[in-house]
Design goal:
Layout lengths: L1 H11 L6 H9 L2 E3 L1 H6 L2 H4 L3 E2 L3 H8 L1 H5 L7 E2 L4 H14 L7 H13 L2 E3 L3 H10 L3 E2 L12 E5 L5 E3 L21 E5 L2
Parallel strand pairs: 1-4, 2-3, 4-5
Antiparallel strand pairs: 6-7, 6-8
Helix pairs in contact: 7-8, 7-9, 8-9
The structure holds zinc ion.
The site of zinc ion has 8 residues, from loops.
Amino acid sequence: MKVAARRRASTLNPTPDRPARSARRVSQSRVLDTSALIGWPLPELSGGFVVPAQEDELLRVSPDRGAIFAGLGLVVSEPSAQAVSSASDAARASGDMSGLSEIDLSLIALALERSALLVTDDYRMQNIATALGVEWRAVGEAGISEVWSWELRCVGCGATQAAPDSPNERRNDYGNCRVCGAALRLKKQR
Ligand SMILES: [Zn+2]
C-alpha cells in the first residue's frame, strides 16, 4: 500500500511544462468494484481506488487474486461518513438500498467524494451514481485504453516516440533511442 501511494504521488506530480495533462489525470481516478478486480488484467488495476473490505471479499470470490491484493497497486481508502450518508440517502430515494452491500455503498461514496469514475456492472450502483452525478462505466467499458495512452521513452535521455501499434514479437524489447542509443521502454504518456 505504501508502494502504491508513493508511485501514485510521483505519477501525479505535475511537471512544469505539462500541467494540463497532469490535471486531466487527477480527474480520471477510478473506483473499482470487485468484479473489476477479478476481471481486469493485473496491470490495469494499478492506481485504482478500493475500500478496505474488498480485500476479504476478493479473498472469498477469487482467492488467487485475493492473495496478491497488497501487490496490485491499489489505493485503499475509506470514504468519509458524510459521503456514505449522501450515498445512502440517494439509495433510499431510488429504492435501491435493500439490494446493496455495505461495500457497494462505500464504493459509491468513495467515487462521490473523489469525483472519480465508478467502475461497476451492478445496475443499482450505476443507478445511484447517476442520481448523484457520479460518472460510471461498466467493467468491460472502462479499460485502460481510454484513460492512459502509451509511448516509447528512452531510459537514457528521456526522448519519446509513438508506441508501436502492432504486437511486439520480442517482449519488452522496443529497440534503441534514435537520439542517444539507449534502450526504449514502453511507458504511460505524461
Ligand atoms: Zn535517448
